Every structure is written in structure tokens, then in C-alpha cells.
Amino acid sequence: MSYEVLEGMLASAVLAGIPLAYAALGELLSERVGVINIGIEGVMLVGAAVGFVIAVDSGSTLIGFLASALAGGAFAGAFVALPIVFGRAPQIVIGFAAWFIGIGLSGEVAASYTSRALPQRMAEVHVPLLRDLPLVGKPFFEAPWPVYLGVVLVLLVAFLLHRTRHGMNLRAIGEDPGSAHAAGVPVVRWQLVYVTVGGALMGLGGGMLSLVTIRHWQDQMVAGGGWIALALVIFVAWRPVALLWGAYFFGILLVLGDVGQSQGWGIPSPILDMAPYLLTIAVLIARATRTRRWGGPPTAPAALGSVFVRGQR
Amino acid sequence: MVNSLGNATSASLGLSQIVKYFGQFRALGGVDFEAAGGEVHALLGENGAGKTTLMNVVGGIIPADSGEMTIKGEPVTFRSPRDAFERGIGIVHQHFRLIEKFTVAENLHVGWQATPKFVSDGRLAEATSELAAKFALEVDPNARIWQLSAGERQRVAILRALARGAEILILDEPTATLSPSETADLFAAIDRIRWAGHTVIFISHKLNEVLEIADRITVLRGGLNVASGLLKPSCDREMLARLMVGGGVEQVRLSGPAAGERSVAVTLAGVCADDDFGRQALHDVDLELCKGEIVGVAGVSGNGQRELAEVIVGLRAATTGQVRVDGRDLTGAAPIEAVRAGLGYIPEDLGNGLALAATVETNAAIKASHDRPLRRGPWLTRGGVRAFATELLDKAGLADVASSRATSTLSGGQAQRLVAHREMLAARVGLVAVHPSRGLDVAAAAGVHELLLKARAEGIAVLVISEDLDEVLQLSDRVVVLYEGRVTGRFTRAEVNRDTIGALMGGASTNGNPVETSR
Amino acid sequence: MSSAALRGHLAIRARIASVIGDPQLWLRIAAIVIGLLLGLVYLSTRLSPGTDLFQTIWTSTLGTGLGIQQWISLATPLILAGCAVAVALRAGLWNIGVDGQLLVGAWAATGVAFALPNLPGVLLVLLMLLASLAGGAAWALVPALSRAYLGVSEVVTTLMLNFVAYSWTTYWITGPWKTVEYANVALQSKPIPESAFLPSFTVGGVAIGVSFLIALAVLAALWLVFRHTHFGFRSHVIGASEEAGRYAGFDTRRAGVAALLLSGAIAGLAGSLVEMSTAHSFAPSLTDSTGYVGIVVAILAAGSMGGVMVAGLLLALLQAVGSALRIAGVTNGVVLLLVGLLLICVSLAAALPRDGILRRKRRPPPEPIREASQ
Fold it and tell me: In 3-state terms, what secondary structure has residue A31?
């Protein structure tokens, strides 16, 4: 494999991985407050569609990108947070509903935009000195600005969750909402807020796909990215900083199939495409085996997926 | 003793006419309560009397339907636990409400306004050590809760309440999971807290403890006051028992020699077993149960009781040793073998013995469903199931319960009767009952006790595991003491000595020295 | 009243109450109706001018022989997928992987067809059906075992395996079973031999596939299993409470594994039936999100087999209407949008009663069986 191919692969891995990082970060926040939102794919689609439509109509990709966050947040707030937190509906079912609605809604919103082009490209940020590094310089340090924003957001969330009082309270909700409530944490409020904020991040992930990575709209264009993001959160064991590396890694896996095909490797690309999912399953099984053998509590937030009812356990 | 008692103007907490309904179930029907600074005020009552509900109202965890609450004379309404502890109320829940995966330091600081906005493990640990020193409650800031014993968890919970400036400390059944020595430590701590001028509300149904620690006593029954603010000198055991229970229920006692031939029904030889976290919970337990006798296992909860019961009925594998039932080796056998061998099991948590989401009929039939007439090969005979359920409900005095009802709609007493009678039918050889009367009112408890005695009379080997020493002594032909997973004492009915057993439960060895522990 | 008479009286009343007086049932139906009405209102605003919504709905479904035919052919995999999900759900497990199991089932059947193309038709068909059962079950094996023995969430593992199955499918139709590519994109494998086609028969001008009858037979068999076998009873108890099942002496691990494998097998069967009756080649399009819609079917049905039938037909109707309306200018995803709304309405309706909005009218809740403080 030539230097250029490798460099190109790393560059596409960044563009494929960062949307995953956004979406997975949103899911991570949501799961940390105990709500598993498996409708990521739908939320991302809504973000991608609305972002694209607004960008085309307003003539600004920046405004489009911001709109994708608002759309993702509003969508997850209305169709995931409210039914789960207030309606106490089963989380898995609501996640599927959100996925379905997201597919339908995004298709409706952007139906007439399929062949439209974006008015402008996202500005690239060139980091002096670092961009001159061999191999990694171009892919990592001459990237469109949402790439850097993604990294910053991941670090911010990591700081929030593990270095602030507020973040500690949030983690407490995901572990044991009853105890968190009794200790004075407003459980319902933060669940609503962070499922919604998580939705906004997923929306950004979708927006980045339609505005930066792929740069046009087509039906169901997220193409499973939401599900990979769900896998990614498990893969990195709910740790935001690890999410960064995980997202790059999954990004590389995603582009590996195409690279392999163009380079004429022996391995068919569909087989490579399975890797993220198989790896996630393997990691889950390995972790469970370790817990079984060595004891201790499981890795996932303990209250993930459970219904919190005030005054009950 | 401190005495600012009876001085109403100094009441730090006042409750008047607190009413709380859960649906149409009246948990509190207009309760009055007041407590002063520098006193320990006991709230005495049976399980289900409304003590916990009352304190959940005080703590802002659930809202009251009506009634008034004052703190230092000022009327207050709490919309959340935070409101409550901002007004100086700290609750130590029976199950502590700590977050298992968090460290002690994190648990202390979670949800607390005084926690600095930015935190780090080191900073929280430091603050925790300072608080621990200030309130003289020793804790390890970096330990995770799931690694701690019940006594250690309780210290964390108390420290958390005090650290947040609790002037009114509510302890909900604080001794339930403590050993006698841990209880003594707790009482010493309560004394210090009282001397510091705080109010301690001590919720309990244990008369001895209440008489030991309380300055004043309020008794609840069925969600109503039956006595308010009695001064301790004016109380005695019998009087409090009468107030709490309402009188009229005869306690069931064992009488007469063990029935039937004395053949061995269940044998445990050198049994070791792990708990759910993989820590060793039973050490070399030898135990023999004969037909027609009741063996009581005394001990503080969490000393291997649950594991012992589960090993016998096949729900937990013994890591070493042997379990024999009626001559057959059932070590490592599937749970069904114990059922087939004729063992009944009344579990500690009824939720384990009942599928609450299924119908009463289903739950009635689960044990009998393995064999004819309910099962024929792969088929289940609906008629057989229905007939069996009907018969069981009749026997259990639940004839007016429709068998198509969801089991979750049964009351606690009804559910207990259903399980107890079902297990009686299943118990042809042995019956294991864990905390058989926990959560029941006295009449219902007496019903269960009668059933256990009936099993004995029918020649069934009965094992009663209970943290209530009175219950054990009342029912048992023989008593063994379980401490830290070891049998530390064995007594026949004639040899039973309350004080010796109490000491053993707290970790004294038979010659008076503490038993070596291996935590 | 004597005890027996009282009980008889109670039993009859309970029976009647459970059928017509079950507020849950009526709430569920009301939620479905509300969801559908919302959908109709939305659809009517979206149509290109000159299209009569009701006319389109009528002709694409019940109004014409072709409509009925298409409806039934759409309902077949949905009913089976609904069965598959319901079987797992009864045992308290989520099988999100029906989509993948369906494809792998079809893959296994295709493999048999290509390996033994010269077998007599009936034998080949039987072998293919068996292979698809085995294939679907095999795809559920890892989730089943890891859930039972390690406690790994089956939600995640079954879901993840769907994507592995999609890639697996792509691999086979672009590799070993490649056919002429259309516009450089492989859409399906080479066709299976004609002897493996499932026939249909005609009733009153409407062609009904044998596959539909097989689906009905599966439905009936499952009804029998859940109502009249000990396996069904065990599943039910474990689904209600795994703890209680263990306590009763059931081998809960084996029961859980069995339920997921059975679920996977039914999913696999759905795949081979679609392939053998309509598609006639192996392709990713054998599942049009059937596995996920199957989840909706099972949830609308609340786990009852009769409900699966009704809900399967209802969702097939929606799909049929959806594809008819596509011509009238509605986007592909609208049906999914409606299904999603329906799902939210129904799950809110199911969650509503325990929330207190309806509580005042219900039986007073008893003292909790566990202490309230726990």
C-alpha cells in the first residue's frame, strides 16, 4: 500500500469516524443518565436532513450545521425523552419508534433536495507545524472545522462527567436513580435535558455526514452509522476519552472495505464491514466473562434501561 | 440523659395530621409527631405501620396528601429530598441508598450543593477524610460501596447525613443488618450525636433497642398514632408490645417433643459456597435436619443465611462439600432435583418465589407443574392447573381471590400465604423458611408459624432462618448460630441461652473470644 | 354462596372481564386507532392533487383481487416475524435480530437449493425449509448462549448480528452466488431452481401462497405450545420472572436459550418462505425491515398469538397502502413514520395506567409486597 493510499485512508477514516464520535457521544450522555436511546440512526437522519435543507436554503453550511443540532435535540426530546421519562414507556420500543419516525421524517423533510448541491464547503482548519507531520499531518490537521469541534466536545463531556460535581450527579442517575434522587439529584430534569442534549449531538453527527463527509442528501444516508455509534459506546465502556480512539478505529474499519477493494486485497469488503459489530460482540462477551470470573459489578451503567418512578425503587 | 423533653416550644420537628394514600391504600391516616433537639425519639411500630412512609414524607422523598410540617416552629413544605436536607433533615435509609459502583467519597458528595463545582478523586477523598474526622466516623474514602460490609455502609450513610448539616437525623431500622457489636458502635455514635444537640429519630420494631436508646417513644399502628411522645421511664416492654401489636394475638410456640421417627432428612457436610460477587459466604457448614423437627438458624442478616438456604434447595452451587436430601446426593444438582426430592422453600424475598407479572393460577402451579396430574409428557393440562390452584387457594384461605388475577395485585399478606401454603404442599421431606414473618403483621406471622409447626407435626424437617432471635427461639427444637458463614454454636432446646446466642451472633466464639474472620 | 358456586361465579365474571372489560385491551385499540387517524390526517395533506386517498387505499388492499393478494403476501413474513419476536418476548427476551436471522435462514435454504438442484421438488422444498429453520436458529445461538451463561444483553448482540448478516448477504450475492450485475450493483443472487418455488392456489380469483398457510400453521402451533404445553408454561413463568422460574425448578438458562433459538428458527423460516414464494433468489431485499416491523407486530399484539395475526395483517395493510401511495407522490419512509407514531401511542397507552392518570378508577393498589422503603 502506497503512502498516498494510507494517507488517504486515514483522512477518510477521520471523516467517517468523527460523525460516529458525535453520535456516540450523544448516546453516551443519554446512557449515563440511564436512558438507552437506540433510535440514534433516526436522530442522525433528522439532523442530516434538516442540516442539509437549511444549509442549501440559507446558503451557509455553518447555519445548516447548527440547525442539525437543534433538529436532533428537538427530535430526541419530543420522541425519546418525553415518552421515556414522562411516559415511562419501554426504552427499547421507543428507540425503535424514534428510528422509524426519523427515517420517515427525514425523507419527508428533504424529499426535494436529493439532487441539490451544497452552497459551500466547510472551512478547513490548518494547524501550523502539526500539518507538516508525515502521514498523520494531512488527515488530522488539515481537516474541516467540525472535526476539531467533535474532539473538543468529546473532551468537554469527559471533563463534565469525571471532573465536575454536575457530572458526578449525572453518573449517579445512570447507576441508581432512586438513590440519586434521595441524595438530592433532580433525576427527571437531568434525564430530560441530557437525552435531549444527546439528541443534539447525534444531530450534529448526522449534519456532519450530509454537510462534510458525503455532501449531499439521499434517503437513509446514515446507512447504519447510528447502530455503529451504539456499538461504539459499548466498545469503549462508556468512557468519553476512549470514544475518541474508538471512533478513529471504527472509522478505519469502515473505510477498510473500500480501500481493500481498490487495492485488490484478498479479503472481500463485506467481510471487513462486519468487523465493528463482531468486535463489539466479542468485547461484550469478554467483559462479561471477566466479571463472572473475577467478580465486581458490570461495566454498563447499572440502571440503564430501567424506569424511574419517584418514591419507588 | 439530656432533658429538654416535653418542652413543646423547642420542638425541632413537628408533624401534624399527616395523611398519605397510595391509591386507595391508607398508609398514614393523620399522624402527629414531634421531636426536640438533643433527644432520641423512637418511632415504634410493626412492619407496615407507616413508619417508613412517614419518614419518606419528612425527607421530601414522597409528598404527603395533607397535613402540616414545622421545623423549629416554621411551617415547611418539601418538594424534593434536597429541600428537606437544606432544612437540616438527614435520612439514613434501611438499605442506605448508596450507589454501589461509586466510592465512599463520591457517595458522600453526590447531589450535595456544598460539593465544589469541579471535583477530582483526590480532592473528594481529602474532603471525605476531613468530614470523617470531624464527626468521628471512620470510613475509607476510596473504597467502593459494593466492597463494604453493612456496618461500614451505614457509617457512610450517617456521615453523609451529618456532613450535610443534618440536625434531625432519621435512622430507618438501623440495626436490621448489623451485628450486635456493630449495633453497639452505632449506639455509641447516636449518643455522641445526641450530645451534640441534634435530634435523632430512631425507627424500629425492636423493643429492646428502643428501650435502650430512646428518650421518648411514639408508637404507630396501621398508619395512626397509638401513643405519642411517651417518656421512656413510663414505658416497659409489655406495654409497648401491646401498643404496637394491638393485643389479641396469641403467639404460637413450639410445644411437645419432636414428632415421628428421628431419621435424617437433609445433611450438609463441609459445605462452602460463594455469594453473588464471588466472595466466600459459607465456610465448612455441617448441618443435619431430622424429620419432624424444627432447626432454627440464628444470626444477623448477611452472614450467609441466604446462601445457606439456596445451597440446600439447589439454587446455589456448593463450591465444596456435600448436600444430601433423603439419602440422595444432590450436590451440584439442578434446582428441579430439590423440588423432586420434596423440598419446599419460603424465600426471603417473596418476589423471588412469585412471578408477580403472571396470574395467581400460574404462581400456584409452578412447583406442581413438573409432574402429573398437571403435566403429561410435554403437555400441560389446563384443567389440572386450574383444579390445583383452586385447591391451594382454598387451603390458604384465599378462596375469594380470583385465580386469573395478576399476582402483583395481591397484598403482602396474601402473597405470603400463597407462597407458604404452596411450599407446604411441595415439602414432602423438608421445608426451608427464610425470615418467614418479615413484613407481616403479628396475626399473619402467627399464621405462618402455625403452618411451620404443622409441617413439623407431619414429620417434615423444617429449617427456619431468621434474624429475629425471638422467632427462632419460639419455634426451634434445635438452634444453630451462623456468623460470617460459619456455624459458631449449636444448642438443643434445653441448652438454649439467649445471651450466649446473642453473643455468638455478634461474633464471640463459644469460649468467649471473637471468631477469626476472613473477610 | 357456597365456595364452589362463588368460585364459579368469579371465574365466569373474570373470563368475561378479561375479554371485554380489560381496560388494557381497549386502551391499546384506542391507541392504535388514534395513531392510524393521525397518520390519515398527515397523509391527506401530503397527496398530490387529484388523488383520492380512500380510493387508493381501497384499490390497493381489499378492493381488488390483486390488492388482497399483495396484502396477504406482505402479511406472511410480518406474521412470522411477529411470531418470532413474540416467542422471545414471552420468555422475557428481546430478539431484535429477526432481520438477520431471516436472511441467514434464507441463505441456508439457498445453499441447499444450489447444492442439490436436482432433488425432486417436494424433497428439496422440505430440505430448504429445514435448512432455513436451522440457519435462523444458528444465527441466534451466540446471543442465546451469551445471554444465558454470561448475562450479556441479548438486545445488543442480536441487533449487532443483523449488520453482520447484511454484510454476509452482500458477500454471497457479490461473490459465490453472483449473477449478472445490473448497473454494476449486485441486487440479488442467481435464481434458485424452479423446483424450489412454492406454489399458490386460487380462491375466488385471489392467489394465496402456500407460504401464507405455513405462516398460519406456525401461528396455530405456537398458540398450542403456549397454551397447552409445559414448555409454554415454563417460558411464560420465566418471562414474568426469571428468579421465580429458577426457584420453581425450571432450567431457566435452557428455557431462555430454547426460546431464542425457536425465535431465530421462525425468523429463518420467514426468510426462506419469502424467497421460495415470491423473490426466487437470495437478496438483501428479502427483508424490507421485516424483522423490525415484526417487533412492532409483537408489541401491538402484546404477546398474544391472535394479536400477532391481527397486527401482522394491519401492518401489511399499511405497507400495501404505503407502496400504493408512493405513486401518488408520498415518500418511501412515510409508512415507517406512521408505524413509529403507532408504536409510541401504543407503548404510552400500555404505560399509562400504572402512572396514575387512570389509577383512581382502578382497584386500590395493595400494600407493596416488598417494603415500600426498599
Answer: helix
Who's near A224: CB < 8 A, 6+ residues apart? A41, C163
Are C333 and A107 a contacting pair at CB < 8 A? yes
**Do residues B204 and B29 touch, judged by C-beta distance below 8 A?**
no
Residue whose cell numbers read 395513531 = C35
The pLDDT > 70 percentage for chain C reads: 84
Across the interface, whether the CB atoms of B111 and A172 are under 8 A apart is answered yes
Mean pLDDT of chain C: 83
**C362: chain B residues, CB-CB within 8 Å:** 23
CB-based contact A209:A221 (threshold 8 Å): yes
Query: Which of C102, C184, C169, C136 has the alpha carbon at shortest distance from A268?
Result: C169
DSSP SS3 for B118: strand
User: Which pLDDT does position C60 carry in this prediction?
Assistant: 74
CA distance C302 to chain A (A): 12
Contact B295, B472 (CB under 8 A): no
| ipTM of the modeled complex | 0.87
**More confident position, C58 or B43:** B43
Q: What is the mean pLDDT of residues A180-191?
A: 90
Where are the extended beta strands (E) located within chain C?
200-203, 206-209
Q: What DSSP character marks residue C229?
A: B
For B454-498, write each residue's pLDDT tens digit.
988 888 899 999 877 778 888 888 999 988 888 988 988 888 877
Spell out which residues of chain A touch residue C338, defining contact as CB-CB under 8 Å: 104
| Residues in chain C within 8 Å Cβ distance of B52 | 371-373
Cell of A22: 458525535
Report how far residue C105's alpha carbon sits from residue C131's, in angstroms, rounded to the nearest whole number.
7
Contact A88 C374 (CB under 8 A): no
Q: pLDDT tens digits for A7-22?
A: 888 888 888 899 999 9
Q: Closest CB to A165: pick one of B102, B117, B160.
A: B117
**Residue B52 in contact with partner chain C when CB distance is under 8 A:** yes
For the stretch A131-182, pLDDT in tens is 888 877 777 888 888 999 999 999 999 999 999 999 999 999 999 998 998 8
End-to-end CA distance of chain A: 57
Cα separations in angstroms, B26 against B21, B22, B63, B243, B509? 4, 6, 14, 20, 47
